[in-house]
C-alpha cells in the first residue's frame, strides 16, 4: 500500500469513527431518541409475549386509543409549558360527549350539536383560565374543583345514565378509515401539526414558553400574561372537547362516566415526553412518543390478560417512574 492509499484509508477510518461517535452521542444525549428506542423495545417484547400483539388490527386499536389521549396530552403539554396544570380534562371529555349526544337526540342537527359541544368545552377552559390568570388561584386547586363540577353537570344533563345517539357522520368519524388509516389518527396528526407550528413559529407560542420560564420577566417584556394563559386553557378545553367527540363517535353514546383517569394518562404521557414540570420547556413530539409508550403498555397488558387491579398497580408505577425521571432531568 502506497502513501496516498494509506492516507486515504486513514481519512475514511477517521470519518467513519467521527460519524459513529456522533451517532453514539446523539443516542446518549437525545431524549427523543431514547423514547423512540423505548417504543421499539416495548413493541419487540410484547410481540414475543403475545402472538396477537403484532397484528394490523391490534395496531389500529393502539392508534385509536392514542388518538384520544394524544390530543388531550398535546393540550396538557401547552398548559404545563405555561407553568400550569389541568385536572379537569377527563371530565370535559365526558361533558362533551354528553352535550353532543343530547343535542343530536333533541334534533338540533349535527352542525349545531358540534358547535354547542365545542363551545361548552371552551367555556370550561375559559372558566379555568379566568380563575388561574385573573384571580391567581392555584391551577391545581381550581381544576380539581372544576373536574368534579363539570362531571356532575354531565350527569345532571343526561340523567345519570349513558344514552345512545344515531349519526352516520359521527359513526364514520369514530370507526371509518381513509386509505386504510382510521379517521381519529388524521385528527391526531392535524392537531399535532397545527400546535407544533403554533408553538414554534408564532409569537403566541414564544409567549407561552416565556411565561413558563418566568411570568414576571414575561410581563415586564410586554407580554400579556393574563390573556395568554386564558387562551392556553381555552385551547386545552377545545382539545378535550375534540377528544370527547372522538370518544362519543367510537362508542355511539354520551357517557357521563367517560374519561375517568384521562388526566393522569395525559400527565404521564406529557412528563414521559420530557415536558418540564416547572414550565418553560417541552416538545409535542416527545408527548406523542410518551403517549405511544403508555398506549403500548396498556394494550400489552390487555393482550396478556392482566387483571384490571394489576393494571392499576402498573399505571401507578409508570406515573412514579415518569415523575422521578422528570425531577432528575429538571
UniProtKB/TrEMBL annotation:
Q: CDD domains per the record?
A: TM_PBP1_transp_AraH_like
Top-level taxonomic group: Bacteria
Per the record, the similarity remark reads: Belongs to the binding-protein-dependent transport system permease family. AraH/RbsC subfamily.
Q: How does it sit in the membrane?
A: Multi-pass membrane protein
**Mind telling me what this protein is named?**
ABC transporter permease
Identify the keywords attached in UniProt to this record, alphabetized: Cell membrane, Membrane, Transmembrane, Transmembrane helix
What is its subcellular localisation? Cell inner membrane
The record's section on Pfam families has:
BPD_transp_2
Major location (coarse): membrane
InterPro entries documented for this protein: ABC_transp_permease
Q: Which species is the source of this protein?
A: Marinomonas phaeophyticola
Is Electron transport set as a keyword in this record?
A: no
What parts of the sequence cross the membrane?
A: 31-50, 62-80, 87-106, 112-132, 139-158, 178-198, 230-249, 284-302, 308-327
